[in-house]
DNA sequence: CTAAAACCTCACGTAGACGTGAGGTGCAAG
DNA sequence: CTTGCACCTCACGTCTACGTGAGGTTTTAG
């Protein structure tokens, strides 16, 4: 598939896909004419990338983590990083939960006032 | 208190505090000589600002939400926004929870392999 | 009164994930 | 063979929450 269709299917922009290649996150093949050729699973990979971005990871981390999802082998470094990022996300969830509680209080207080 | 002490107590930089003033999030008084004079509760307010920033809200939203935490009155607009941001944060927590599960799987798989 | 902190106001620099043309090429249709 | 859309490669622009001097003033310690 070409870049336009992947963009439509995955919901990201063409520019974003080129950026992912530049960052080494999703490197497609090339047609004889030089156009990018993506395989089917590229869409899944894009979703994974977006999910990790949404968790606050920078491209470098995503580039280091994606191989762990592809292959079934992990180096010590990768395992340490997996744990670190997992812990970071846990802390992030805890903080968001606290913020949510705070906003809930405000909403409830407003509702009680009419 | 002056800006340096607030910075130390709240853990943010002096520059950040000036920025908060510029954004209308935390506007201190001024000494006769023109220096910023903060009250005690400024530290709490800084923490609230940081918490909202951490939840992904931009300055504009924070500026709109902070009054809800100060006064006990809310406009319709404020209440709608409170709900909207609350829902956004809920969704964010859900997505992070999914990401966490995914990373947990990877960590567990790596652990099982030795 | 003086020196040194600590503060002040511009105002440009930064990082990250793209947006947005500019100018040129590949490819399927007619 | 030519239109025309989708694609290509630079390469500068954008937005946010500050970082980082430059150059000058206020406050405090001695």
UniProtKB/TrEMBL annotation, chains A, B:
Domain HTH merR-type as annotated: residue spans: 1-68
Molecular function GO labels: DNA binding; DNA-binding transcription factor activity
Coiled-coil portions: 79-113
Pfam families assigned: MerR_1
The keyword Coiled coil belongs to this UniProt entry's keyword annotation: yes
UniProtKB keywords: Coiled coil, DNA-binding
Protein name per Swiss-Prot or TrEMBL: DNA-binding transcriptional MerR regulator
Organism, as annotated: Prauserella sediminis
């Amino acid at each position: 598939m070409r870049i336009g269709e992947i963009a439509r299917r995955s919901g990201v922009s063409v520019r974003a896909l080129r950026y992912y290649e530049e960052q080494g996150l999703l490197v497609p093949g090339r047609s004889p004419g030089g156009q990018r050729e993506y395989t089917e699973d590229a869409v899944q990979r894009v979703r994974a990338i977006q999910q990790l971005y949404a968790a606050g990871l920078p491209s470098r981390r995503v580039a280091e983590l994606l191989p762990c999802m592809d292959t079934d082998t992990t180096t010590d470094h990768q395992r340490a990083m997996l744990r670190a990022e997992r812990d970071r996300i846990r802390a992030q969830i805890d903080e968001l939960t606290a913020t949510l509680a705070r906003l809930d209080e405000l909403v409830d207080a407003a509702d009680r006032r009419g």
